# Entry
Amino acid sequence: MILLDTCALLWWTLEPDALSDQAKKACAKIDQHGVYISSISIWEVGIKLKKGSLQMDEDLNGYVNRLKLLGSLEILPVDENIWIKNLSLDWSHRDPADRTIVATAMMKNCSIVSKDQIIRDFYKKTIW
# Structure
């Protein structure tokens, strides 16, 4: 299993050519191995839509419903264990979504597909 950060999720579902070759290879195996996203990514997508920095042909509910139809994708809730892990990270990065995505990957012991260099510098199990 891999975990997609929010940008990787958006690129995978809306603009696959924006993924790197390594990320494309990892995503090509999703049907065989499955993929996680953190529910905080749904929040991030919603924020981007509200601010107008993301345009989609559907609203957030439609997008999430489409994600749920992908049998290989599991949306992971952010529970108290992930929040505790988030807060215990020895990482000065203040972005709550990035911290939560990394904490989730650590809890699930999986790699993150991410272009974000800050994440990649902290969490070595990344694909890009």
Notes: The chain has a mean pLDDT of 96. Strands lie at 2-4, 35-38, 73-76, 111-113, 126-127. The chain is about 55% helix and 10% strand.
